[in-house]
């Protein structure tokens, strides 16, 4: 008989689950990564492939993850172990859980470094608000941050500490409180920035860049980046959503419905971020294409400098971005922490969170150094997809573009083949039959094949 509650705690309502899952999904992926990947991968063509990946591969796998989690009620590794035993399938599926924990530690390692950038910028605007010197040329300011390993390490540590505290406190006390107000605030601020975008007179060009696909730009690399981003932005493929699903009550809650709410929120934040950022980029004479990871840090401060009350907007923007990153980073740490505290005892939750965060922080130092002292350490250009990447790029590529899609594919296969039709149907009882059939075959065949095709094309 399956359990109705999790030992780690439960979301207090459906809304809390949606907020927490959307809190996990909405983060640096939407506001920092999506705009710069769009910028680097040819605009509309990338956006189109990205949206297709979300709809065809992302949504079904998101449903699968939450469903497996709710059925198992434990950390991913133990959920899969339990299910494999109960349904008489291979124990090898437990590997999905291990893959997820490793991917989580790797992603958190550089996520926290970039989270640190947002804290640093928030702090710059706080100082400015109290009479400090203005930022000056944003590209100079950004380069000077990246060239300073101590400054980067400091903010990376602060960000990691904030993450650890929330996860150590646990589901009800930590995670829920953090997401309740912050998500709506971020949304409103983005809308204001889009409004500012209209006043620049360049919204039309920005929309063309974002939504008019130039099909000649679509390549294997674009597909891989778009798919990696679809997984990353939905927090998919590393059992995060499985973990959050484990804390989801059963009564009257339809998984497809809540999942669609999460995916819609996530996608609209990414598109809004694009509509907020590109008009500014164009208005200030920057190139929309090829902006790289510095895109928002090089462009938005220009607008904050020019607009009335700009310093306050700057502080609000980077502050809320830091918070959005925070509600995501806690979800990167949660699966591993839940597993360790099942293994060593629930009273060791704090220690478990601290241990994993410590490992991830240490790995993050590699990313910090790759931005300055080790910036020359790169894969030789042109070798293959890896050519020209530094250490931070490599970790990001390995975790986001390879491990997440691979994990997602395995999750789809597990839900489609290892779980019986009856179990799947029980979890999705509200779904019309035709949709259920479509979903099941998407999980069994379509999604895994698409992921495989993209991975194979890019790697070979
Ligand atoms: N979805 C987050 C973002 O877009 O910033 C990043 C993320 C969180 C990825 C949790 C994966 C994950 F498990």
Question: How many structural domains are formed by the residues?
Answer: 1
CATH topology-level fold name: Amino acid/polyamine transporter I
Q: Return residue spans where pLDDT drops below 50 for at least 5 consecutive residues.
A: none
Shape descriptor: globular
Give the % helix: over 70%
- Averaged pLDDT: 93
How many H/I helices? Answer: 19
In angstroms, what is the radius of gyration? 21 Å
- Strand percent estimate: under 5%
* Class derived from helix and strand content: mainly alpha
What's the architecture, going by CATH?
Answer: Up-down Bundle
Distance, first to last CA: 45 Å
Instruction: Give the CATH class.
Output: Mainly Alpha
Number of strands: 0
Instruction: Characterize the main sheet.
Output: none
Series of secondary-structure elements, N-terminal to C-terminal: HHHHHHHHHHHHHHHHHHH
Q: What small molecules accompany the polymer chains? A: 4-fluoro-L-phenylalanine
Descriptive notes:
With 460 residues, this protein is mostly helical. It has a single domain, classed as Amino acid/polyamine transporter I (Up-down Bundle), CATH 1.20.1740. It is 75% helix and 0% strand. It contains 19 helices and no strands. It is globular. 4-fluoro-L-phenylalanine binds next to helix 1, helix 2, helix 11 and helix 15.
């Amino acid at each position: 008989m399956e359990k109705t509650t999790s030992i780690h705690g439960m979301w207090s309502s459906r809304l809390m689950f949606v907020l927490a899952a959307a809190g996990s999904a909405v983060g640096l992926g939407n506001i920092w990564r999506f705009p710069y990947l769009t910028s680097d991968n040819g605009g509309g063509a990338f956006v189109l492939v990205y949206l297709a990946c979300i709809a065809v591969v992302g949504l079904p796998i998101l449903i699968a993850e939450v469903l497996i989690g709710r059925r198992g009620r434990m950390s991913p590794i133990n959920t899969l172990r339990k299910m494999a035993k109960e349904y008489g399938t291979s124990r090898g599926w437990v590997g999905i859980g291990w893959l997820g924990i490793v991917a989580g530690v790797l992603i958190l390692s550089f996520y926290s470094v970039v989270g640190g950038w947002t804290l640093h910028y928030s702090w710059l605007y706080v100082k400015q608000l109290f009479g400090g010197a203005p930022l000056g040329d944003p590209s100079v300011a950004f380069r000077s941050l990246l060239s300073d390993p101590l400054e980067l390490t400091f903010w990376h540590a602060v960000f990691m500490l904030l993450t650890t505290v929330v996860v150590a406190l646990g589901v009800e006390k930590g995670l829920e409180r953090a997401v309740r107000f912050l998500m709506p605030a971020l949304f409103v601020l983005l809308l204001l920035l889009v409004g500012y975008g209209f006043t620049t007179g360049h919204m039309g060009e920005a929309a063309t860049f974002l939504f008019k696909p130039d099909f000649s730009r679509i390549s294997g690399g674009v597909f891989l980046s778009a798919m990696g981003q679809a997984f990353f932005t939905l927090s998919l493929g590393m059992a995060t959503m499985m973990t959050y699903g484990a804390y989801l009550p059963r009564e009257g809650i339809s998984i497809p419905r809540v999942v669609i709410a999460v995916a819609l929120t996530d996608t609209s934040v990414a598109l809004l971020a694009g509509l907020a950022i590109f008009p500014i980029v164009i208005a200030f004479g920057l190139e929309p294409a090829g902006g790289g990871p510095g895109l928002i840090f090089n462009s938005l401060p220009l607008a904050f400098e020019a607009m009335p009350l700009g310093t306050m907007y700057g502080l609000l923007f980077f502050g809320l971005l830091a918070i959005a990153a925070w509600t995501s980073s806690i979800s990167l740490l949660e699966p591993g922490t839940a597993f360790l505290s099942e293994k060593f005892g629930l009273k060791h939750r704090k220690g478990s969170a601290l241990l994993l965060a410590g490992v991830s922080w240490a790995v993050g130092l590699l990313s910090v150094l790759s931005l300055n002292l080790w910036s020359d350490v790169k894969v030789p250009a042109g070798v293959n997809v890896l050519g020209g990447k530094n250490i931070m790029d490599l970790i990001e590529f390995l975790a986001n573009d390879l491990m997440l899609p691979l994990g997602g594919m395995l999750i789809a296969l597990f839900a489609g083949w290892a779980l019986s039709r009856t179990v799947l149907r029980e979890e999705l009882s509200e779904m019309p039959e035709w949709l259920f059939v479509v979903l099941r075959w998407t999980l069994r065949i379509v999604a895994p094949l698409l992921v495989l095709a993209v991975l194979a094309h890019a790697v070979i």
